[in-house]
Amino acid sequence: MELPFIVGGVLFAVFLLRALVKRLLYPRPLPGIPYDKESAKRITGDLPSIAATYKELTEWGLPIGRRSLKYGSPIHQLFMNPFTKPYVMIDDPHEVADLLLRRTKEFDKSTSAGVWQSFIPYSTIAQQTTPEWKAQRKTWQDSMHPDFLRRVVAKHIYVAAKDLTRLWEVRSLKSNGLPVDVSGDFSYAALDAIWTATFGEQLDLANAQIQMLETGKKIQTKGLDMHSTVQYINDLANTWRGSLWPALTRWRMQRNPDYRRYTEVKDREIDRILLDASARFQKILDGSSDGEEHDTCAMDLILRRSMLAAQKAGKPVPDPTKDQRMRDELLLFIYAGHDTTSTTLQWFVKHITNNQEAQTKLRDALRSAFPGDSLPDVADLLSKDVPYLNAAIEEALRCAATAGRTVRVATTDTVLFGHKIPAGTEIVPLTSVKWHPPQVSEELRSPSSRAALEKSGGVDWTLKPSAQDLDKFAPERWFKIDEKGNEVFDSGALFQNAFGGGTRGCFGRRLAMMELRIMITLIVMSFKFLPVPPEFNSFQVTEQLLRTPRQCFLKLEAV
């Protein structure tokens, strides 16, 4: 009697343990939302599929997002890690815009372990929307004010753009008519621009490249050290791909010698710059002036106000090197402002090289707006409206899909397309508009989404002329005929979710658009981008933190 009882107990325990393991480790799909059936049978969920997709295409975000077409549903789910709820992907630009812009009380920024939480955890991008976050964002809001950008920041971007054109002049002379790899050049120019705009001092990365080309000798500068540190952020992104245990991955990464080395370089430079600026601003604390004339960069603006506020409150002037929120926010300026612009510019020149007609139209429009033999100065460039330039920038943002997805978390039990979404579920909206998503009945959309459609005229966006041939680079899609019969630029021709939207939209959008406008104007007015052979013209992607072209070769001809 005892043996059967023991055997039965063991079998029951094994059954119970198996059921517990399955419940804890295996994916638990949300009811009604499509998913890959084979992935649901694995502890690793969709990770093998993602790894296989990345191995074949060197990207996974958009290809996996396109599963919506296979499922015939604008919503589907991914199984990424044990012990976690499924990720819910949204492939519908209309609903994505609604979620980001109008449903901010239901969906907040996700702060699950990642690059930003590991490297700059006190920056606004790494935090949820709390009162502390709002106070921190308010502190920095004037650094993105149009007046400050035009008065202080634009000139730094313009200098970096001019340096880029000089670098390309040298490259063109030494290329013997062959295509040259310019991917690094955009990175140097963008970092030159954003570093000076943030910290008020020059890295001279583009000039260092010019010297190396002219002398044949390697030039070592602090700029190259900082460039390597910034590029390391992209390498960090790869540590999370395929990670079953993100927290463990983060713990191990922070003990990696490379991580520590780059962190030390970053901290040393930031400390030096902050202390120099703090000493410079001591002279305004006598109260004779608010010191606005000393604002030469974003750091000056914020640091000066912080010091004056402490003095006014009768408190000791704070040591800026001990202000972790200020340090991390300054670094966010550098990381986010450098790589996104650099990557988008790479995609722009690739598309404009492969669309010679659009390139000619853009150059003609710029010459018409800025006549004469010389390049426009920065004030003229920013004050004059050039519709075709606006359209080319919007189309470049759409086609680049530099940040093709974002991540939100449901802060309450809610509904998407009629499906129940539990609080705590990670939502992954696709921000790019590169194909028509599966059709969905309007009554399944949120009330705010339906109201927005009605307000815009009730026309399905996929039926508009601007939404056709989405696989092509066509700036003309961003024009419409106004009531007077004139062709005018229409920023609403398509959903533009490249910068996200709402409270947690890209803080640096104005800066990025200014930088794109200045850089594109100067390079298009300075060079023709001639067709390049197929072996230099791949549109394959390398997806790390951002979606970057694997090749960026140009055949340059000065104009």
Describe the structure.
The protein is α+β, with helices and mostly antiparallel strands. It has a domain at 142-403 and 491-558: Cytochrome P450 (Cytochrome p450, Orthogonal Bundle). It is built from 20 helices and 14 strands. Strand 1 and strand 2 form a beta hairpin. The relative contact order is 0.16. This is Cytochrome P450.
What keyword list fits this structure?
five-stranded mixed β-sheet; 559 residues; alpha+beta; three-stranded antiparallel β-sheet
Question: Strand fraction band?
Answer: 5-15%
Shape: globular
Report the major sheet: 5 strands, mixed
Computed over alpha carbons, the radius of gyration is 26 Å
CATH topology name of the domain at 142-403 and 491-558: Cytochrome p450
Protein name: Cytochrome P450
Question: How would you concisely characterize the structure shown here?
Answer:
The chain is of the alpha+beta class and 559 residues long.
Give me the secondary-structure topology:
Blueprint: H1 2-25, H2 47-57, H3 61-65, H4 67-71, E1 75-78, E2 87-90, H5 93-102, E3 107-109, H6 115-119, H7 131-140, H8 146-174, E4 180-181, H9 183-199, H10 205-215, H11 222-238, H12 246-253, H13 257-281, H14 298-312, H15 324-353, H16 356-369, H17 378-383, H18 387-400, E5 408-410, E6 414-416, E7 419-421, E8 426-429, H19 447-455, E9 479-481, E10 487-489, H20 509-526, E11 527-530, E12 541-543, E13 547-549, E14 553-558
Parallel strand pairs: 2-8
Antiparallel strand pairs: 1-2, 3-5, 4-14, 5-8, 6-7, 9-10, 11-14, 12-13
Helix pairs in contact: 5-19, 8-9, 8-10, 8-20, 9-15, 11-13, 13-14, 15-18, 15-20, 16-18
